[in-house]
Design goal:
Elements lengths: L14 H7 L4 H8 L6 H13 L24 E4 L8 H4 L7 H13 L15 E3 L1 E4 L13 H18 L5 E5 L1 H13 L16 E4 L8 E6 L4 H6 L4 H15 L12 E3 L1
């Protein structure tokens, strides 16, 4: 913190909390988020990956910054992952874009009628989401896809603020994996929902209802295994399993397939 002289700088641990609290909308929140340098290990890793690059992407300029969520500001359904992939979102600048996990997720969203196309290759590829916002509890690519508890907690204000801004329309959320489930529940608590204690355990197909309060509408939470290659290659998560969870989530959120109209806003990637 700048010793009382002004807002924290982007490399200060207080930067996420301050900027999240003072953001008036998702666009402003995302702008602040992409400037964040609060976690030194994650900053060093995301920039190292961008400098060395993978051979297949050696001619590309990597994003190498925190990756914001994307989707319409009136989304009824949030899909929450883990963190950007080093050569996926960290390269393309969009969540779940340019990697195998994203290919699996967006194909499933398309099958349910919540995405305009089954592929997500780069920003500006024409992808639109219907009533869905895709985000994560950690916005920088972590080494070995494993954020530390401190990094997760430092990043939490971004997710809490995003959920609070979505609150007027948000009716359901899907947590992709145990890490997401465990990070999402306290973020929802910080965003104004009443989360039960002890917190329910994660499981594929797990479902939790957060009761409406004076400030927040009822919210349904569903769990799904993460569409990592480790899960999809071994059959722990099949395409049909993910489609089933997303179909139930869409129904709980009040969304219909794009063929009949979702009644929610759209977002171009």
């Amino acid at each position: 913190m700048n010793a009382g002289t002004g807002p924290p700088t982007s490399d200060d641990g207080g930067y996420p909390g301050y900027c999240a609290e003072h953001s008036g909308g998702l666009d402003e929140l995302d702008t602040h988020l992409t400037r964040c340098r609060a976690c030194p290990r994650l900053v060093a890793w995301r920039e190292e990956v961008a400098a060395t690059r993978r051979r297949a992407f050696r001619d590309e300029e990597y994003w190498a910054r925190p990756v914001p969520g994307f989707g319409p500001p009136d989304a009824a359904l949030a899909v929450v992952g883990l963190a950007p992939a080093a050569h996926g979102g960290n390269r393309t600048g969009r969540m779940f874009t340019g990697d195998a996990s994203g290919d699996f997720l967006f194909a499933a969203l398309h099958a349910v009628g919540l995405a305009s196309q089954p592929e997500a290759t780069h920003r500006g590829d024409g992808l639109e989401l219907y009533g869905v916002r895709v985000t994560a509890p950690v916005h920088c690519a972590p080494p070995q896809n494993k954020p530390t508890p401190t990094e997760r907690d430092t990043c939490r204000p971004w997710l809490s603020a995003e959920l609070a801004l979505l609150a007027p329309s948000l009716r359901a959320a899907v947590a992709l994996g145990a890490f997401s489930w465990q990070a999402l529940l306290p973020a929802l608590g910080s965003a104004g929902w009443r989360v039960p204690r002890p917190r329910p355990a994660f499981g594929h197909g797990a479902q939790l209802t957060l009761q409406a309060t004076d400030e927040r509408p009822e919210l349904r939470i569903l769990g799904s295994y993460h569409p990592s290659q480790q899960n999809t290659f071994t059959g722990r998560l099949t395409f049909a399993m993910l489609v089933d969870v997303l179909t139930r989530a869409a129904e709980l959120a009040g969304l219909r397939s794009q063929g009949t109209g979702t009644g929610q806003g759209r977002s171009a990637g």
